[in-house]
Structure formats: C-alpha cells, structure tokens
Amino acid sequence: MKKIRKLYTFLISIFVILSLCSCHNDTNIITWQNEDGTILAVDEVANGQIPVFQGSTPTKDSSSQYEYSFAGWREEIVPAYSDGVYTASFIENIRKYEISWFNDNGSLIKTDYVQYGLLPSYSGVTPSKKSSNSKNYAFAGWTPQIETVTENASYTAVFSTTIRQYEITWKNEDGSILNKSYADYGSKPVYQGEVPFKSSDEYNNYYFSSWYPKINDSTIVDRDMTFTARFSPTRKKANIKWVNYDGTLLKEDINVAYGSLPTYNGKIPEKNTENGYSYEFSGWEPAISTVMGDVTYKAQFKKEVAKYEIKWVNYDGSILAVDYVSYGKTPNYHGSIPYRPSDGEHNYSFEGWDSAISPVDGNKTYKAKFSSTDRKYIITWIDYNGTVLEVDENVIYGEMPSYDGEEPSRLSDSQYEYTFLGWNPSLSSVTKCYI
C-alpha cells in the first residue's frame, strides 16, 4: 500500500514539472563580469543547472601600494532559473618591493623585501671597507637617504675617512722604552716625552743629541716605526745662579764648563729708591771666579741720596724747565718769568705757582699761576671830515661806549642841508679799539 502511494506521488510530481517546463524557456543567460564592469564571458545555462565560469581567472591591475588576487564572485552562485550576472571580487594585499643594499665597490650585501609605506632598515653585518696604507674607513650610513618604500630601491654604503695612524716607539740607548705614541700617516714623527737621559761616568756628562734612525725633513710616518736615542759626551758642568739683593733669580746659566769664568749677560740688577736713597749696582758677592761647581752670585749696590724730577710748566702745560733735585732739598725755578699773552678780555700777570714749593720727596710738577685784570680800550669819536671830536680812554672790555660831546653838525652847501644820523660803525660793546 505504501509503495503504491509513493508511486502515485512521483507521477504527480513529474506531471507538475512537465507542466511548468511547458510554460518557460529551456535556457538562461548568465553574464560574468569583472569588478570594473568589463564582460568576461556570457553563458547559456539550462534551467536548474549551476553556472560554472569557464574563462581565465579574473585579474585586477596592481597599484603602487596594493596587489590584487581573485577572491571569487560577489554574488552566490545558485542553480539558474533566470538570467543572471556574476561580478568578480578581489582581495587586496600590500605590495612588497625589493630593497638592495650595496657596498661602495658595487658588491651586493643584502636584499630585503619591504612592504609599501614602511621605512626600510638594514639588519645585516655592518658594511666595511679595507684600510689603505694612508687611510682608515668607517661606515657612516647610506646613500641616497633612506625613504619610505614606494618602489624598488637600492642603497649604497657610505664611509667616512680618517688618516691611518701608526705606532711610534721611542727607546733609550739601553733599550728601555721612553714613550709610545700614535702618529698620522704622512706626518713627521715627534717625540713628546721627557728628554732622554744617560748617567754621567767618571769623566763625562752626556746629553741627548739625536735619534736613530735620523729624523729629518723627509722623514714621514708610513708604517710602525722605532727610534733610539743617541747621546754625545761633554765635560762636566755646573749651574751658575745670579740673584738680586733680595734673592730674586735674575738669570741662571746651565751647564757652564768646569774651569771657565762665568759672565753675567742679563739686565743690569736694580734696587728701588727708598727713604730718600737711590741704589747703583756695584758688583757681585762672592767675587766672580773660575767654575769649580754650582755657585750663586748676589748683586751688591752702592747707596746714594736720591734725586727726583721737578717739572716747571706754564699755564697751558708747556714745559718751562726740568730739574733733578736731591731728596729733602727745596727746588728753585731758574728760568724766564712765565708769560701768558693777553686775550680780548683780560691781561695776565704771573703771580707764582699752583702749589707751595716744598722740600723734595718725589717727582713733582709745578704749574705757573696768573692773575687777570680787565683789558681797557681807547674809543675815538671823529667827525665826517676827520676832525677828532672826543677821545675816551680806559673803556673796559664789554662796556657800551658813550659820546659825551656836542651833537656833531655839518654846514649846508648850495645843494644840501645835513642832519646828524648816528655813528659808523654802529655802536656795540667794546671788544677792541674803535675810531
């Protein structure tokens, strides 16, 4: 009974399907397009079938920042019962670029692949460059300047340069090390330690004379080098000190040969004037004798009454006389009487010095002092014809002159009559004699 029922249901279903198929087309148009709308393919698909894209895998052009890979279709693929459109979709991936790191000789050190927009960073062994005979090289960076990645790029190592240094060994004659130093290639070796020393023997002292090998103008540092001190013998010598009266060292003569007579060739010793006395160098104590060992000679002085400079100067600072007068003596001026010329306003008379003359106790300057009197002038009043009308004497500088006579007059002639108008020149304060 169940089997008959199932058969009956199956036959009904077939009938329905056949009825439906007789009402519609048998195929459907399926369009496959790229993300930008470009048609990739057009297929006819029978009703009920699942569309299948048969073309090449869809692609999308890369940008400088991204690459794209096909991810499938934007719409879900289902059995076809009507026309349909399927659009490709893509996954974007940040692009990587090749970053090459080169040494300065062009050899490739390392290659990295770095994402767009990142700042590349070198992580390999520090680049190096072999030293030359004259130079050392130290890695200093890259050229061009490292920038964020936007394309394939190459960077080349840059090196700073320093002059190569070599070890210079300085030995004494006995082989002991005096000094070790480092000097630049091409420079002249220079010893900077204490002067090499060799002990005296019974008869001789020794002084450093040179290095072996010899250092001259053509000697330059171009490798590790060793120099050994050489010495020359000399007779034993002494040191002679010359000191002033107060023990101040004036001069020291070093390595004066035994049996020679020392000679002082420095500045003549001096002792300052004090308490009215001056001092003149007179010799040495002890008396100078042939050298038999170290010795100190002390300056001796002769004592005299001190003299000081006395200057006599005029009102304007000009020197009238200079005297040198012993301490305690009273100076006396022996020159011409100081003079100061009159000016428009005053006459001047010498009346002494700006300070009282006193016993000498040091250098001093005396300046001439003058008294002044108002200067007086003569004013002459003359008529038009040259006749003297009045003479005013002793008119003081700066006063306004005044005519005290009768008003001047002039007789008329056949053509004119005359009236007194005033004086020529016009009256003004007195600054000189007027007529």
Please describe what this structure looks like.
This protein starts with a helix and ends in a 39-residue tail after the last strand. The protein is mainly beta and 435 residues long. It is built from one helix and 22 strands. It is flat. Residues 1-24 have low confidence and may be disordered.
- Please state the CA-atom Rg, rounded to the nearest Å: 62 Å
Counted beta strands: 22
Characterize the largest beta sheet: strand count, sense, and whether it forms a barrel. Answer: 4 strands, mixed
What's the helical proportion of residues? under 10%
H/I helix tally = 1
**Approximate strand percentage:** 35-45%
Q: Taking strands numbered 1, 2, ... along the chain, how are they ordered across the largest sheet?
A: 2-1-4-3
Q: How would you classify the helix and strand content by structural class?
A: mainly beta
Low-pLDDT ranges: 1-24
Mean pLDDT: 90
C-alpha termini separation: 179 Å
Strand-helix topology:
Blueprint: H1 2-21, E1 27-33, E2 39-46, E3 66-73, E4 84-94, E5 96-102, E6 108-115, E7 135-143, E8 153-163, E9 165-171, E10 177-184, E11 204-212, E12 225-235, E13 237-243, E14 249-257, E15 277-285, E16 295-305, E17 307-313, E18 319-326, E19 346-353, E20 364-374, E21 376-382, E22 388-396
Parallel strand pairs: 1-4, 5-8, 9-12, 13-16, 17-20
Antiparallel strand pairs: 1-2, 3-4, 5-6, 7-8, 9-10, 11-12, 13-14, 15-16, 17-18, 19-20, 21-22
Briefly say what this structure is:
The chain is 5% helix and 44% strand. It contains one helix and 22 strands.
